[in-house]
Inverse folding.
């Protein structure tokens, strides 16, 4: 008999998903090549698809952070002493380990983070690609010889910061872990990663696989713990030389202020309220499917989500009708079902936030054209499920157009012409991403040039790759997290001067006979 989605939810095997990475079933931090249990408060892991706890672990706390930092300092010395080619080969082997464990990692991400299995398989492969890409960079990082106007040989050396502390979020745990770890290691750093306490499992698994690939102990540490205890202890630790944070602007500003007290630089990858602009001359069928992917994939839990859909008024009614039809047909359900395109929202707090913002939009005059409710029964009877939601009659001054919702909710905003579309797109505190759909080549590039956003797509949406720089403007943060530019964030130049003259002039002081 074929199992229904409800049956699958009842037989979710968390132990099987964890077994390849947690041999004894104990969850803790990955420190100095071993699992180290915490000694703080209990932290419950909740399955987003059921709303039920499936595991409890101890918050790491300050002692575990100290151990991780000590191991990282020692491990970084060993790592930096290796040849660049050796480091590159190990990074490639980490990518190979990830590929070899594709199904196990995808399953663990699915059951612990609530992401559809069709998505987690893709994201695990992208993590392998990240390590492979930066493996190729490892022996190509070199300085310059500068023709200074003296008798000196002056050259530069790119050098690592040392120990980098990285904080990653719950919406894409393994993806953001690989996104940060690979360039940090390529540049010769050790990385202390603190994933969200809600989704630490696949990040710890990456640490386990890195050891199998031959990475020296201590070069990757993964802290399983709470932000206000373990996270703060890590970002403010004396051994931390740079902080990378992926998350909300509110938390990012706090972390940046904490780092500034120790004169430690930051990279902040924060939120967005991206404008997805559709002109009347666009291929509307392509644009409407692109708009669905922009906001509904990942249940809208993406910093680059196209949550503001700007549609030219002349095609507004036609486009909204197509969008609503599409939203009503997207499969929502059990993340383990390969037919599922939208799984649950990750956690109850975010679920309540999304519903509160939908209600606020209605109170401000927006119309719910689709969704806004839990799907009927079956696999969605429990957990944090929400049907893809389309809000019409939205103005850009409404809270639903100003605040990041981080859920499967799109606000449709009409515009008359190009200048107004650009003005609306830029009328936001965020500047992470955006897109334009049009058949006019000149207009496409004008809009791309004039919308303030770190990533911009033309006649597509949401394609990113480790080869290309990623980051934002304004309250979307600063610094870049991928590509060559992301790699440079993890290095600092040293200028070396060597006197080459046989009898250099004495510019100051007394030269004895």
């Amino acid at each position: 008999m074929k199992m229904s989605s409800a049956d699958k939810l009842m037989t979710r095997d968390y132990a099987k998903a964890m077994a390849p990475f947690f041999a004894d079933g104990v969850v803790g931090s990955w420190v100095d090549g071993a699992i180290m249990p915490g000694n703080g408060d209990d932290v419950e892991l909740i399955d987003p698809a059921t709303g039920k706890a499936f595991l409890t672990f101890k918050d790491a706390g300050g002692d575990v952070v100290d151990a991780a930092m000590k191991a990282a300092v020692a491990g970084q010395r060993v790592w930096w002493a290796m040849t660049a080619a050796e480091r590159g080969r190990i990074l490639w082997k980490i990518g190979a380990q990830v590929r070899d464990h594709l199904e196990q990692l995808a399953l663990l991400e699915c059951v612990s983070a609530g992401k559809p299995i069709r998505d987690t398989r893709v994201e695990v492969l992208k993590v392998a690609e990240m390590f492979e890409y930066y493996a190729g960079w490892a022996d190509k990082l070199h300085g310059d010889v500068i023709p200074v106007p003296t008798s000196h040989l002056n050259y530069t050396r790119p050098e690592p910061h040392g120990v980098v502390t990285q904080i990653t979020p719950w919406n894409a745990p393994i993806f953001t872990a690989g996104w940060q770890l690979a360039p940090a290691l390529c540049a010769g750093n050790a990385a202390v990663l603190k994933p969200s306490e809600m989704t630490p499992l696949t990040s710890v698994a990456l640490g386990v696989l890195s050891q199998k690939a031959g990475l020296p102990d201590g070069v990757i540490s993964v802290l399983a713990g709470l932000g206000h205890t373990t996270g703060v202890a890590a970002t403010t630790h004396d051994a931390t030389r740079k902080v990378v944070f992926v998350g909300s602007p509110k938390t990012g500003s706090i972390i940046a202020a904490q780092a500034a007290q120790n004169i430690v630089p930051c990279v902040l990858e924060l939120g967005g309220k991206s404008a997805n602009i559709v002109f009347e001359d666009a291929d509307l069928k392509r644009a409407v499917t692109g708009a669905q992917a922009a906001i509904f994939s990942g249940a809208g839990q993406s910093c680059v989500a196209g949550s503001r859909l700007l549609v030219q008024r002349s095609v507004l009614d036609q486009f909204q009708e197509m969008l609503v039809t599409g939203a009503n047909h997207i499969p929502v359900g059990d993340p383990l079902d390969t037919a599922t395109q939208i799984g649950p929202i990750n956690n109850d707090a975010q679920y309540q936030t999304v519903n509160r913002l939908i209600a606020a939009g209605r109170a401000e005059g927006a119309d719910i054209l689709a969704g806004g409710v839990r799907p009927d029964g079956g696999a969605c009877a429990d957990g944090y499920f929400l049907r893809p939601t389309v809000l019409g009659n939205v103005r850009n001054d409404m809270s639903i157009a100003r605040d990041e919702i981080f859920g499967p909710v799109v606000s449709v905003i009409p515009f008359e012409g190009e200048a107004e579309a650009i003005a609306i797109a830029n009328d936001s505190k965020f500047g992470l991403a955006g897109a334009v759909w049009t058949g006019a080549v000149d207009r496409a590039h004008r809009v791309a040039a004039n919308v303030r956003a770190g990533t911009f797509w033309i006649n597509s949406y949401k394609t990113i790759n480790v080869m290309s720089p990623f980051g934002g403007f304004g309250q979307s943060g600063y610094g870049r997290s991928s590509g060559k530019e992301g790699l440079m964030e993890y290095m600092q130049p040293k200028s070396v001067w060597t006197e080459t003259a046989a009898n250099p002039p004495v510019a100051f002081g007394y030269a004895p006979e």
